[in-house]
Design a protein that fits this description.
Blueprint (H helix, E strand, L loop, with lengths): L1 H6 L3 H14 L18 E9 L4 H13 L3 E6 L6 E7 L2 H11 L6 E8 L16
Antiparallel strand pairs: 1-3, 1-4, 2-3
Length: about 130
Amino acid sequence: MELAERVGLSESPCFRRVRQLEGSGVVSSYNARLDQRALGLQVTAFVQVSLGQHNAERQAGFLAAVEAEEHIVECHAMSGSHDFLLKVVAYSMDHFSELSMQRILKFPGVESIESNFSLKEIKHSQVLPIRDA
């Protein structure tokens, strides 16, 4: 097992520690990183969303719509002038236009959106910094 070798443990204790990390929720999933462009997803947009009314029902409807939209790959509640930041991937500008105008703008509670486009991804990492114990 490569992990055991890298951390200097035998396989059994290493396997037990990995299972403990999984059981405690520190390791929540394993993923394959797919090449977005190889899948034809040529556009990445960061969409700032402002909700008009801030009530629990509208927000729940908005969040349910976000969860249901496969082209929204990240959603963050924000401080500042906008309520949410969405990372949206699309096949083309026309596809993004349809996503934003026919879907996102019609999500419950959405008052306005503002979009910014990624020209080039400089860094993409799921690796978190871990303090030495």
